Amino acid sequence: MLDCLPSVPDHWDIEADIVVVSFGAAGMAAAVTAHELGEKW
Questions:
Q1: Cβ 30 vs Cβ 23: under 8 Å
Q2: pLDDT tens figures, 1-41
Q3: CA-to-CA distance for 28 and 14, rounded, in angstroms?
Q4: Which long-range contacts does 30-35 make (Cβ < 8 Å, 24+ apart)?
Q5: What span, in angstroms and rounded, lies between the C-alpha atoms of 27 and 19?
Q6: pTM above 0.70?
């Protein structure tokens, strides 16, 4: 049953607290809000 587990990398290249996937109205608002709250790009 557990023969086919998804693989997860041992090491990640980048860490992120916030990931904005879209750049429509909601994505833009999320990115601007995150930046205003001190998130770094």
A1: no
A2: 556 777 877 888 888 888 888 889 999 999 899 899 988 76
A3: 22
A4: none
A5: 10
A6: no
